[in-house]
Write a structure and sequence with these properties.
This is GcrA cell cycle regulator. Residues 74-121 have a biased composition (Low complexity). Residues 1-23, 66-150 are annotated as: Disordered. Pfam families: GcrA. This protein has 224 residues and is mostly helical. Among the domains are: 27-65; 153-221, no CATH class. 23% of the residues lie in helices and 2% in strands. The protein is built from 5 helices and 2 strands. The chain has a two-stranded antiparallel ribbon. The radius of gyration is 22 Å and the shape is elongated. The structure holds a DNA duplex (11 and 10 nucleotides).
DNA sequence: CCCTGATTCGC
DNA sequence: GCGAATCAGG
């Protein structure tokens, strides 16, 4: 019957949250922060989720809470040489490197997966794959891997065309705003990602979205 | 260019 | 305590 043990919920004033100018770090919000940070979410993602705060605010809070380091099973291989000498130099590491071959980091961007109408269990796209050898290094939610499929010739043509304009970026350059369409063979030097601006809410650029998300109307009839 | 976290410092 | 500005890096 402790009525004041924590009174965590008594902090809510009589206002409902809706675009409040001053978001404070309520117990609830801090909880979310801890949870997401612990999960490896980025500060910007957390900030977006919480709303009303910037990633700077999130980072600042994280540090104040003393959770600057999210070591939780991840190797991290942190090389934390005591910062000194310069007032601004302790900048090294602390970034999730997808190239870590010692431990897969369960970092997921949470694929938005629009169009949830049809059970698109079978991926479809096939950007570029003359041979049958796909050995994706990272074991993360990469875009649907290629797979023989019938796609509108026009869509494919569009892809072929867009591939010429593709930025041809590397894995490191992938962001939520870059088309994540893989091209080529990961095992060769001829592998890259489209990198063009993605379509709102989708992981690929317009051209690749076209072939990635087939309504399945065009792909049915595949009996053999 | 986009992004990441780290730190500083005025509020 | 808070977070914008800044920094340092990928």
């Amino acid at each position: 019957m402790e009525a004041d043990t924590l009174t965590k919920r008594s902090g809510q004033r009589g206002r409902f949250l809706t675009g409040e100018p001053h978001m404070s770090w309520t117990d609830e919000r801090v909880e979310t922060l801890k949870k997401m940070w612990g999960e490896g979410q980025s500060a910007s993602q957390i900030a977006k989720e919480l709303g009303g705060v910037t990633r700077n605010a999130v980072i600042g809070k994280v540090h104040r809470l003393g959770l600057s380091n999210r070591t939780a099973g991840a190797p991290a291989a942190a090389a934390k040489p005591e910062p000194k000498a310069k007032p601004a130099a302790p900048k090294a590491e602390a970034k999730p490197k997808p190239a870590a071959k010692a431990a897969p980091e369960p970092e997921a961007e949470a694929a938005p997966a629009p169009e949830a109408e049809e059970p698109a269990a079978a991926p479809a796209p096939k950007p570029n794959l003359p041979a049958r050898k796909q050995i994706i290094p990272a074991g993360q939610p990469l875009p649907p891997q290629p797979s023989a499929n019938e796609i509108s010739p026009e869509a494919l043509a569009k892809v072929s065309e867009v591939e010429k304009k593709a930025k041809k970026i590397g894995l490191m350059e992938l962001t939520e705003r870059t088309c994540k369409w893989p091209v080529g063979d990961p095992a060769t030097d001829d592998f890259w990602f489209c990198g063009l601006p993605v379509q709102q809410g989708k992981p690929y650029c317009e051209a690749h979205v076209g072939v990635a998300f087939q309504p399945m109307s065009a792909r049915r009839d595949r009996r053999r």
